[in-house]
Amino acid sequence: MPTMADVAQHAGVSVATVSHVLNDTRPVLPHTRQAVLDAVDALGYTPNTLARSLVTSRTRSIGLAVSAIGNPCFTEILQGVEAAALEQGYGLLIADPHDDPEHERRAVRLLHERRVDGLIVAPSADPRGLLAYLTRHAVPTVLLDRVVDTPADGVPRFDQVCAENAEPTARLVAHLAARGHRRIALVAGRSGLGATGERISGYRHGLATAGLPYDERLVAHGDGEPAGAERATAALLALAAPPTALVTGDHAMTIGALRILRERGLSVPEDIALCCLDDFPWADLFSPRLTAIARPGRELGALAVRTLLERLGAPARPARTVRLACSFVHRTSCGCPDDPAEERPAPSGRHANREKHAKGTVL
Questions:
Q1: The whole model's pTM is what?
Q2: What is the mean pLDDT of each run of 10 residues along the chain (363 residues)?
Q3: Residue 235 class from Cβ within 10 Å (0-12 exposed, 13-18 middle, 19+ buried)?
C-alpha cells in the first residue's frame, strides 16, 4: 500500500507539501498541487482519514439531521448539502429525527459522538432540548429551514438558513383574492414549527392587504401528515360557509387536501381553487397543474454547508440568520388559464353559489 512518502517521491516534493495539499493546511503553487494530485492518482494512494483526524482534530465530516428525508423538498435540500460538502472535501453522516424532540436529541448526540466537525439540523417543533445540548457542548451548528433561535435581545446563538415563509404565503392569498375569492382557507402544517407560524402570519397579512377579514375557523392544522390534512380539509368543507379557495401549507398538506377534495367529488379549480406552498417535481403533472411557491432547496442546502464551514473557520463570528427568496410558479389550479395573460370570467355556477353564500354569512 503506497504511503505519503511514496507520493512525495513520485511528485518530487516533500512529505510536508503532500500533507498541505491533501489537508488544505497551507497554500501550494498550482503546478505543485497538480503534481501531488497526479501522484496520488498514479499510485492509488488513499489518505488515512483516522490518522489525519488525530493530528488536525478534524474529521472533515458533517452531521445532517433532517426529518422526512423522503419529502421532495428535503430531498432537494439534501442534494444541495451533499454536493456542497463533497465539493469542499467533506463526508456526510445523516440522521432522521422524525420531528420528535426526544429522537432528535438522541440523533444529534450520536452524530456529535462520532466527532463530526459540525452539524446541520432542521429542528423539531420543540427544539429546547436540542438547543440546550448544542449550547452546552459548543457544537458548531447551522439550523436549517426552520427559524427557532430568536432570543429576546434579537441576537441568535446559532447560524440559521431558511427560505422566506410569510411573504410567499401572503402572495398566494393576494393572488386568490384578485381572482375574486373572499373565503380563502389555510391548511397549515405542523403546529409549533417556526415555518408554520410564519406562514400563518403571511396568510393573515395577505388577507389584510386584500381587505378581507381574518376568520380563525378558516385556519386548520394538518399536523405534518397527509391524513391530518385530510381531516383539516374535511373540517373546512363542513363549515356553514365553506371556503372557495385553499392555500396548503406544505407538500403533505397538498396531498391530503387533494385526496379529500377528490373523495367529495369537488373539482379544482371549478368548485374550489387551490394554491400550495412547497412546489414538488410532479406538481406540473396534476390536472389541473398546481400553482405553487417553490423554495430554493438545493441553494438552501449548499448555503447551510458554506455557513457551517465559515463558522468552523471563524468560531467567534457573530451568528446570523440568512433567508432566501422563493419563486411563484403560476399554473392553473388557482383558476387562471394556461396563459396568465388570457382573461378569465369571474367564478360561476356551483363555485359562484358558494361564494355568494359565504359573503352572506360572514360576521
A1: 0.76
A2: 86 88 82 91 72 57 83 84 92 89 91 92 89 92 84 76 96 97 96 89 97 97 92 97 96 94 96 94 86 95 96 93 95 84 40 35 26
A3: middle
